[in-house]
Amino acid sequence: MKPLIIIYGSTGTGKSDLAVELATRYNGEIINADAMQMYNGLPIITNKLTTEEQRGIPHHLLGSIELHEDPWVVTQFKKEATRIISEIRGRGKLPIVVGGTSYYLDGLLLKGLVEDQPALEGGAHPEAMLAKLREVDPVIADKWHPNDARKIRTSLEIYFATGRRASDIYAEQRIKKESKWASKDTAQTHGLGEILLFWLYAQREVLNERLDQRVDKMVRSGLLGETAEVYDYLQQRLAAGETVDRSKGIWQSIGFRQFEPYLTAVKATPDAGPALAKLKEAGIEETKAATRQYAKYQVRWMTMKTIASLQEEKLLDRLYLLDSTDISRWKQEVLEKGVELARQFLADEQLPPPTDMSDTAREVLAGSVERSNREDTPCRKTCDICQKTLLTEELWQAHITSRKHAKAVRGAKKRMLIPAHAVPSRSLVAVEPEPSEQDSKQHQ
Ligand SMILES: [Zn+2]
């Protein structure tokens, strides 16, 4: 048996602590899968465990790249993590991967997902990409909205990286989907061995409160000093005439961006006391807001993307949600349950159904599965009034019943641009469409 434990979880749920606890008990080594913690230094901004908290457990890919370097793309992470996993096994030890960067974990775990490859970055014009995609994979090209550069790029990258059409891969996955909750022996087709997955989850309001307190604590332990360090480093590089791509990497880390106006003002007018205090306070508030936003994004990624993929790959019965909502019960709910599950897993015993772990586990897992089973009906309709193309029947219905569409229709009627009978409208009910899974990515 080649066991592997992977720990997913939002920021602030205690996943790094669980990883250390498991490693201590089961002779493990830890692989970091948090893009920001891969940067060297800045322990407060990136929220790294201290050496003391690591308790002598080897941590890989922690602080292994320099500040000016680009964050790793998924394929690079997958390659390195896979190599380290087999090295750890070579030492007779248990690899434990823990991370906040969900697409790293997905990339490592799931087949057929080749996202965020750098191959086409820089200069590839959306229209040119679409033209190329129409050539190599017309089926998928027709599915994507012409403006959805990201999906077009991903499909092209899948083609270039695997030599296979994304449409074929998706069709295959669809066929494989038949049985939803898999048996134990199907869960090792990934070359990664036997897998046990944890998802540390906390209810949003409670987690938000905790994250706010954590930001205050970070400020007390010297967040601003670190931020100033990054700021000076950036200024030096700019002064040396270097080009710095600030759209990614450490420059996008939460806790740096938000304090930049303050730091700039400190340099310019160090004596402007009250004005500076105001900017500092704003920086703290924005850091809190961004942290909450990021935690929300992590949960949405899990419920909308990871769970659907795990289901397709018949790994969903290996995903254990541990409820970290009540921090005073962390020991019972997260630590003890996690330790016992890992013990059963390593002893090759029968594991309980993930939905039996807690009420929260049942609600959240069942809800996510239900959502991902709700098949969208593909279609492609364009609303000429709003100049909007919708790709599923559900989104189309949501659009033509939306307040926005109704408003556009009224405007168009007023301008007498269109005869009333030509208007697609069921605009008595105003329903805005749900936001799509195309979230803004802010932490990569
Ligand atoms: Zn419309």
Automatic annotation (TrEMBL):
Signal peptide: none annotated. One of its GO terms (biological process) is tRNA modification. Its EC number is 2.5.1.75. SUPFAM superfamilies: beta-beta-alpha zinc fingers, P-loop containing nucleoside triphosphate hydrolases. Residues 383-405 form the Zinc finger double-stranded RNA binding domain. It is an enzyme of class 2 (transferase). GO terms for cellular component: mitochondrion. This is tRNA dimethylallyltransferase. It comes from Staphylotrichum longicolle. The lineage of its organism: Eukaryota, Fungi, Dikarya, Ascomycota, Pezizomycotina.
